[in-house]
Amino acid sequence: MHRKQFPFRSVAHMPPDCLCVLAHSTCRHVLASFTHQDKEFWMNEIIILGIVGSLRKGSYNHLALKAAQELVPEGAVLNLVELHDIPVYDQDTEMAMPAAVLEFKRRILEADAILFATPEYNYSVSGMLKNAIDWASRPYGASAWTGKPAAMMGASTGNLGSARAQYHLRQILVTLEMPTVNQPEIMICNAEQWFDPDGRLTDALTREQIQALLAALVRIASTRPPGENKAA
Question: Is residue 49 part of a domain?
């Protein structure tokens, strides 16, 4: 199916004290573009696996994934996975992988799509997230990522909302052969302003953007052949 192209605004043009997200009218246009024919793609439940690149209690990226669980399209579900138990990658053990890694790969293979939520550490993704990505790509020829549709978002307390980390993550997903949602870009800057004391994302525009991101991810996942790159 031909995919429409939309004129999204660059992050560089957004004021530093704003949420680095798309224009409200554009988001509505994305959601409205899904026709009855598109919705027929969603007859089977789409399983999205949410992966957060932070181990911190109270992580804004984890809270963003919790918000996304409330915003998945009808016919889809978003399950979260933790990275706490995954050891540091060691190629000497990849032919007899640790149980936590095997479970992580199983969760990836069972999913129809992946949603990453990444913080920004030193202009890049966190070491823990890169470590988990590396494990699941091994051994050579048995990557759990190949062909798996992906989307990403991120939150930080700085003005760029994890923009540099997300662009680096996009480079990583290229080599993993993961088709990735390009728009909208969800970059939640000054994140402490947008979550209430209970950890709920309160900004309506950001919630609408996440809803549009999930709709685009489901649309890609729904067009893949049934059972492609899923666990037996």
Answer: yes
